[in-house]
Amino acid sequence: MIIDKNTKNNQLKIINNQLLRIAFLFWLLILGGCVERQLTTPTTQMDAEPQFWVRVLLLDDVKSCRLKFDSPFCIINSRTQNISAHFDKPNAVTKAEIFNAKITIANYAITDNKTVILPEAPYIFNLNGNDYRGKLQFIINPDGHSFDVINLVPIEPYLAGVVGAEMYSYWEPEALKAQAIAARTYCLYIKKRFGSRRCWDIRKTQANQAYRGVKAESPNIWNAVNKTYGQVLVCRQTDGTEDIFPAYYSSSCGGHTENSKYVFGDSFEPLVGVPCPYCKNVAKPGFFFWPMAKFDKADVTNSLLRRYPKLKQLGKIKGIVPVRQSDYKGFSRLTLVKLVGSTGKSDSIRAEDLRLTIDPTGRKLKSTICKILNMGNQWAFLSGRGYGHGVGMCQCGAEGMARQGKKAGQILAYYYPHSKIVRIY
Ligand SMILES: [Zn+2]
């Protein structure tokens, strides 16, 4: 076929236009997908007993926040259960603001920390652009100038927002199930241990476990939560009884998990270290072996003194010396270091605390399996491997085991030896 130059140019233009149109349609689809939330399941357990709810600290010490409700909502006094106000205009964006110990929301004034906001079905509210299930509570701080925002949410929907934030939803179903059981156990333990002393049970960050609400959910994630409904891990306690324990977990252990007593200072039979040949091929590049991380010495001193005022007597930190480490085949995890100061005084600190003080996100200084080098004005951390504190289940390792056909129960038995799964509701 003979095609002249003009015909060829016209054909190219048509193809280009078609490509542009297809790209535009794709863009619309992606944008639509991002904006429109697809609820994979209704909010379950809304009628559960109080012990099966968890109070998640969503915002800390804020002066205002943005709110939107998909459905009508009411304001209830949790002490009397009386409805103080009812709002039947859904989808309107409103602002909660504090002034002189009074929070105003949609022209209604909240002056009582017992006030709870309950959206009607599907029991979803949007806080600063993120959707969460359950109820909402404001806690006015004693100074009257700021408040905390707490999400009261039944445990199972809470877990859907955790499992999807802690693992990729495309990971193996058995790894996701192991994650759901570990997260359920951890959450109930933290609630039991610390909840009675404060207005909330757990943080939404990695300081406890990541919780991203509805946007972390997917059918795979809900499947893992539902298939493990009410299941937790228990172990023998010092008094001989069986109970839950802090089922810690971290991203990638680097080849061996760590004994909890050297990292968090608590001892439970399942929280001893185990070898982990499973995470190496699952962890993303740069996470199993990570590149050298450098920090200015002045910044390191400042961060340490801010977080630990008792270190002020040391002056400038001139030396960081390993004191205790767990040795494995070919590598070791620092667990205790000595800080030597310019005044000649020294003090010891857990290596994991040092890591998270220097780099609170932990993204650069990924673990304490590393060597510390004194480099002029900087501290360099090199030969690093693993991501996270290394205690309990290795998440990448759990995925590695699941890829080899292991079940959730086998994964948990491996990373938490001497534990067993029981169903508590
Ligand atoms: Zn591992």
Q: Low-confidence spans: pLDDT under 50, at least 5 residues?
A: 1-8, 24-36
- Biggest β-sheet: count, sense, barrel? 7 strands, mixed
Report the bound ligands by name, code or SMILES. Answer: zinc ion
Shape: globular
* Rounded mean pLDDT score: 91
End-to-end Cα distance? 74 Å
Q: How many strand units?
A: 26
Helix content: 25-40%
- Largest sheet: spatial strand order: 4-3-8-11-12-1-13
Structural class by secondary-structure content:
alpha+beta
Radius of gyration: 25 Å
What does it look like?
The structure is a single chain. This protein is α+β, with helices and mostly antiparallel strands and 425 residues long. Among the domains are: 50-156, no CATH class; 289-385, no CATH class. The chain is built from 9 helices and 26 strands. The protein has helices at 5-35, 155-166, 173-194, 219-227, 260-263, 297-307, 351-358, 395-403, 408-415, and strands at 53-62, 64-69, 73-77, 83-87, 93-99, 102-105, 108-110, 115-119, 124-127, 130-133, 135-140, 147-154, 202-203, 231-236, 242-244, 249-250, 289-290, 293-296, 317-328, 331-341, 346-350, 371-375, 378-382, 384-385, 393-394, 420-423. It has a 7-stranded mixed β-sheet with strand order 4-3-8-11-12-1-13. It has a 6-stranded antiparallel β-sheet with strand order 7-6-5-2-9-10. Strand 22 and strand 23 form a beta hairpin. Helix 2 packs across helix 3 (173-194) and helix 2 packs across helix 4 (219-227). It is globular, with a radius of gyration of 25 Å. The N and C termini lie far apart (74 Å). Mean pLDDT is 91; it is low at 1-8 and 24-36. The structure holds zinc ion. Zinc ion binds at residues 252-253, 276, 278-279, 394, 396-397.
